[in-house]
Sequence to fold (210 residues):
Amino acid sequence: MNISNKLASSQNRNDEVPNIELAIDIAGNNDKAAVKVLVALLVSDKNRDIQNDSIKVLYEIGERNPSLISPYSDTFAKLLSSKNNRLQWGAMSALHAIALCEPALIFSLLPELEAAVAKGSVITRDNYVYILIRLAGIIRYSNKAVALLKEQLVSCPSNQLPMYIEKSLPVITSAEKNSFIQILQSRLSEFEKESKRARVAKAIKKLQGL
Fold:
């Protein structure tokens, strides 16, 4: 298939349906050649829309078949400093997708990931936190990942805190619960919406029951 012609922008589409359909097809067929073409478009094509579509397809592939995109982790890591915000958070999404199949690699990239969050978008931070949660569930990487996760819970926008702690609950151990509870309790007064404050309060109760 002609990969470029399958991308949404090549079809004059403003939605992501063609990109997602292409990702499903490539992931389902374990099509390594198509992934290679997408990476080449991502890196070399001068058309910003083609680049944006390519990163979308790649991380959608990663969500379905992470081993297909894991060989290109270095490419994604380099994009973390891209001036194109779409490529930056798309690269973080791709790295999140391969975190469980390549945990040692992703762990080694933590300094770069952390630096990207400092200047990135909310979506960049979201995927970084999800990466930390995945690493926290692996004994070998849990101490460092949990420490960085706590830093994010301390400093993240209050709007994101309920979602972050809810997703973190499965990897928090009884030995760590008190420090997480303290972080959450220190931030309860920040919420304007009662619904978000209630979600954090519910998480605190769950942690207290560990």
User: Anything to note?
Assistant: The longest helix spans residues 48-64. The chain has a mean pLDDT of 96. DSSP finds 14 helices and no strands in the chain. Residues 43 and 75 are 8 Å apart (CA to CA).
